[in-house]
Design brief:
Number of helices: 10
CATH class of the largest domain: Alpha Beta
CATH superfamily of the largest domain: Conserved hypothetical protein from pyrococcus furiosus pfu- 392566-001, ParB domain
CATH topology of the largest domain: Conserved hypothetical protein from pyrococcus furiosus pfu- 392566-001, ParB domain
Radius of gyration: 22 Å
Helix content: 40-55%
Largest sheet: 5 strands, mixed
Distance between the termini: 74 Å
Strand content: 5-15%
CATH architecture of the largest domain: Alpha-Beta Complex
Shape: globular
Strand order of the largest sheet: 1-5-3-4-2
Number of domains: 3
C-alpha cells in the first residue's frame, strides 16, 4: 500500500509540474492545443473512455459545422433563456460532435454552438472556441438517430424535421420496425408521424398503400 501511495504521489507531482509548464506557454493557441492533447492521452487510460463526456476538448468554432438534418427548433424566449444560462452558469456540457476527415459535425448542441460563435460577448469570452465531446464512430443513420434521442429526451422536436429524418431512413432501406426502435417510437407514433409529415404521398406503393389512408 505504501509503495502504491508513493507511486500516486509521484504521478501527482509530475502532473503538477506539467501544469506549470503548460501555464508558462505564452501563445494561447499552443496552450489550448497542449491541454487538449494531455486530456486525450489521459482519456485513453480512463475506465470511462467509452463515455463521450469523459473527454471535453476546446475546438475553434469555425472548425465545427451544424448538420443538415436536425429538426430541433428554438423559439425567441427559449433562445433568451439559453443565452442567460450560458452567461450565468457558463458551459456545463460540451457540444456533441462526430469527427471525420472532413472535420467536426454537430450531433447535438447546435444552439449552444450558435451562441458561442454568433453572440459577441460569449464568443469573446470563449476566445472563438467551443467545448466538444466526440461521439464514437457512427454511421449517418446512427448519428441521425442519436440527434433524435437527444432532442426527444428534452421533449423538443419539430414534426417537419422528424419527417425528413424518417423519409431519409426509409429511402436508405430501413423498415418500420428498425426505424421505431432507432428513434424510440411506437409503431403508432411512427405511422402518425408519416401521415402528418406527408410521407404517405412520398412513399405510396402497394405495400404501404392502405397504411397511408388518412380518414
Amino acid at each position: 500500500m505504501e509503495l502504491h501511495d508513493s507511486m500516486i504521489d509521484n504521478m501527482i507531482s509530475q502532473a503538477e509540474a506539467l501544469a506549470c509548464e503548460i501555464a508558462a506557454i505564452e501563445d494561447e493557441e499552443e496552450k489550448i492545443r497542449a491541454l487538449n492533447r494531455v486530456r486525450e492521452i489521459l482519456h485513453e487510460v480512463s475506465p470511462f473512455k467509452e463515455e463521450p463526456v469523459d473527454l471535453v476538448l476546446w475546438e475553434k468554432g469555425e472548425n465545427v459545422s451544424p448538420n443538415d438534418y436536425n429538426p430541433n427548433v428554438v423559439h425567441t424566449e427559449e433562445w433568451k433563456l439559453l443565452l442567460t444560462s450560458l452567461r450565468e452558469s457558463r458551459y456545463a456540457m460540451g457540444i456533441v460532435v462526430h469527427r471525420s476527415a472532413d472535420g467536426m459535425t454537430i450531433v447535438d448542441g447546435e444552439h449552444r454552438w450558435q451562441a458561442a460563435t454568433q453572440t459577441p460577448d460569449i464568443r469573446h469570452r470563449l476566445r472563438g472556441y467551443v467545448p466538444v465531446s466526440v461521439l464514437g464512430t457512427k454511421t449517418e443513420a446512427e448519428r441521425k438517430a442519436a440527434t433524435v434521442y437527444f432532442n426527444r429526451a428534452r421533449g423538443i422536436h419539430a414534426i417537419e424535421g422528424m419527417g425528413r429524418i424518417v423519409r431519409s431512413m426509409v429511402a436508405a432501406g430501413w423498415d418500420d420496425v428498425a426505424i421505431s426502435e432507432a428513434l424510440g417510437m411506437t409503431s403508432e407514433e411512427l405511422l402518425r408521424l408519416k401521415q402528418v409529415a406527408g410521407i404517405a404521398a412520398h412513399l405510396a406503393s402497394r405495400e404501404y398503400g392502405r397504411a397511408w389512408e388518412i380518414t
